Amino acid sequence: MAIFVLAGVLLAVLVLAWVLRPLWRQRPVAGSAAISLLVVASGLLYLAVGTPAALDPASHQVPETLGEAIAQLESELERDPSQVEGWRLLGRAYLAEDRAGDAMDAYAKALQLAPNEPVLLTEAAELRARSAGDRRFDAEAVVMLERALQLDPSQQRARWFLGIARRQAGDAAGAAETWEPLLAQVDAQTVPNLRIQIDQARAEAGLDPLPPPEQARDAQAAVRVSISVDPGLALQMPPDASLFIIARQPGGPPMPVAVQKRPLEVFPIQATLTDADSLMPTATLSSLEQVELVARISASGDAIPQPGDLESEPVVVATGPDAVAALLVDKVVR
């Protein structure tokens, strides 16, 4: 019964999220609020009627109002305060009732339990901005967004909000640079409006607009990579670990030029890095004559190195359609 209810709620969320998609695109603030309220209502409904305890009518009364649902959730969290999703849901519910202070307290408790959850960090930062009188991201919110992107560079909302924060702080160039990787992540219909925002920020910073988008991307390989693992370390690989293949500019900034994340397979693993793996359209893999390659096996699935991860020595190779590199994962990150 509980699984059936949860599946029904999930299906409703997906269907309504699709229906609200035009609203999200045309009015992001209204769309975000509508979807947030949808998630709150769905989650509270599941907590109310989607648990085995709810099968006993004497042990649980379905709330008739949001206030009653909040009270029941508060009671449940008082009984078991270790529920990350419970605190997150309570924070959203408080926000729906314009209780911003209580919402931030709830998110703070969720972050105490899961300090390295990128989505939670992003939502907490957004909440701080929405709760501020001037709707600005403060220093703590910026730290949260930067941490979220360190943990997962593919977090689109964190990247968008961080760009807004930097533009609010007068760093238009930083905002444009933060947003540019989104061009390779969002759908084709969103790209034109995103380019307008980026070009406006670049103009504020005295920079030229982005170059026109290419009509056809060169599909030739930039680098073909073969990754092997030292037999002595093979037994240390968790079965659910992730493999990151990272390309950087030799002697350049630590931010990768291109990253490919994939599940572990039977070694040796063959991979191909192309411009499709580049993080920024203005700094593509094929635009460099050489790249520094590293392979990392991450137990946590995070791009940031963690103690216990397995890693190869960096190798510098020339780029081009005939470029080939071999990496040996043979050391443990300390």
Give short descriptive properties of this protein.
334 residues, alpha+beta, Serine Threonine Protein Phosphatase 5, Tetratricopeptide repeat, 2 domains, eight-stranded mixed β-sheet, disordered N terminus
Order of helices and strands: HHHHHHHHHHHEEEEEEEE
The percent range for helix content is 40-55%
- Mind telling me the CATH class of the largest domain? Mainly Alpha
Report the count of strand segments.
8
Rounded mean pLDDT score: 79
CATH topology term of the largest domain? Serine Threonine Protein Phosphatase 5, Tetratricopeptide repeat
Which term fits the overall shape?
A: flat
Distance between the termini: 47 Å
**Rg over alpha carbons:** 23 Å
Low-confidence stretches: 1-11, 48-59, 215-219
Structural class: alpha+beta
Number of helices: 11
Task: Please give a structural write-up.
One of its GO terms (biological process) is cytochrome complex assembly. It holds the Pfam family Ig_CycH. InterPro entries: C-type_cytochrome_biogenesis (IPR051263), Ig_CycH (IPR056412), TPR-like_helical_dom_sf (IPR011990), TPR_CcmH_CycH (IPR056413), TPR_rpt (IPR019734). With 334 residues, the chain is an alpha+beta fold. The chain folds into two domains: 203 residues, Serine Threonine Protein Phosphatase 5, Tetratricopeptide repeat (Alpha Horseshoe), CATH 1.25.40; 110 residues. Helices cover 45% and strands 15% of the residues. The chain has eleven helices and eight strands. Strands 1, 2, 3, 4, 5, 6, 7 and 8 form an eight-stranded mixed beta sheet that branches. Helix 9 runs antiparallel to helix 10 and helix 10 runs antiparallel to helix 11. The protein is flat, with a radius of gyration of 23 Å. The N and C termini lie far apart (47 Å).
